[in-house]
Amino acid sequence: MKRLLIHWLLTAAMVTAVLGVNVTYDHRAVVIDGKRRVLVSGSIHYPRSTPDMWPGLIQKSKDGGLDVIETYVFWNLHEPVRNQKSCMT
Questions:
Q1: Which residues contact 15 (CB under 8 A, 6 or more apart)?
Q2: Mean pLDDT for the chain?
Q3: Cβ(5)–Cβ(13) under 8 Å?
Q4: If we measure between CA atoms, which residue out of 72, 51, 69 comes closest to residue 60?
Q5: Strand-pair category, 68-70 with 23-25
Q6: DSSP assigned state of 67
Q7: What is the DSSP letter of 37?
Q8: Contact 36, 29 (CB under 8 A)
Q9: DSSP H helical ranges for the chain
Q10: What reaction does this enzyme carry out catalytically (predicted)?
Q11: Which of 22, 29, 49, 51 could form a disulfide with 36 if both were Cys (CB 3.0 to 4.6 A apart)?
Q12: Domain ranges of the chain
């Protein structure tokens, strides 16, 4: 629970810095500019699409009502050999 709270606080700080909105958590919900929000999330698995597809996928997600897009880091693509990282793949 403590890790989740730290995660929310860091996320809130980043959103506030980027968007200029006030994001807090009141132990019941995420509060954005004084309004409680239920954020709807969906996933995009970036290795399963090409980079030129990403803007369209993100727009379709927005059009479909998503507030948050999550993604996994497929670490085996970025570190195919142990301790040899490559973020170019």
A1: 21, 23
A2: 82
A3: no
A4: 69
A5: unpaired
A6: S
A7: E
A8: yes
A9: 2-19, 54-63, 75-78
A10: Hydrolysis of terminal non-reducing beta-D-galactose residues in beta-D-galactosides
A11: 29
A12: 1-37, 39-89
Residue 33 CB coordination number (10 Å): 11
Q: What is the pLDDT of residues 24-48, one digit of tens each?
A: 889 888 899 999 998 899 998 888 8
- Is the predicted pLDDT of residue 89 greater than 60, yes or no? no
Q: What sign results for the dihedral spanned by CA atoms 31, 68, 21, 25? A: positive
Q: Which tokens hold the place of 72?
A: 């996994």
Q: Determine the 3-state secondary structure of 25 from DSSP.
A: strand
Long-range contacts of 46-55 (CB under 8 A, 24+ apart): 46/71, 47/74, 47/77
Q: Give SS3 for 66.
A: coil
- The answer to whether residues 70 and 41 touch, using CB atoms and an 8 Å cutoff, is yes
